[in-house]
Amino acid sequence: MAETNSLLNCRRDNPTGGSNPPLSAKTNLNFSCKISYIFPPSFANMNNIIQLHDKQFIKYISAQEIEEAITIIANQLNKDYAIEQPFILVTLNGAIIFAADLLKQLKFSSVLSCIKISSYQGTQSTENIKTLIGLNEDVKDKRVLIIEDIVDTGNTYKALVNLLKERGAKEIRIATLTMKPEAYKFDLPVHYVGINIPNKFVVGRGLDYDGLGRNLQDIYQLYS
Prior knowledge:
The protein is α/β, with parallel strands linked by helices. It has three helices and twelve strands; from the N terminus they run ββββαβαβββαββββ. The chain has an eight-stranded mixed β-sheet with strand order 1-2-10-9-8-5-6-7. It has a four-stranded antiparallel β-sheet with strand order 3-4-12-11. α1 crosses α2. The chain is globular.
């Protein structure tokens, strides 16, 4: 199982509205903001449903809650990298929106680069990892911080760790906007998690379904 501890626990029993219960926080190296949603079978507010290609998605996590989770990650990164700044590696294309929101809140200087690795076909994550844009910078003896939009099976994350170790990185950590603990199958620690979600396909905030949905400010879950 992934080594993640809860920094922020939130629960909303009614996704249509209402205030969240009080939040509790504690400081951990590995942490996550956990948000749980319960959808009644009859829940079908058409204002919360969108169509992408041949599938419908229902609004799942609001932009405000996403932004709160990003701020929590940024605050922890500012503490952890206050003395020795990391080399930041952003995964394309999904993590660019999360990375942009996160970087604006970081108070330390850092070198930033991007890498494009793909493991998805449609709505399924596969073990077929394709490197489409490689890492050109030297990471030997550097602290590397991977920025991801989602960690599900962990296949992409594992491939990145192997690559960075081969290149001589001194330390490797990852910050991800979302994570699916039920799908994760490696023992590698996932250091900074914004929101833990169930093992269901989601779009929005950089996450896509065959190219569509990345621009959505909220996160939507597969509905039909």
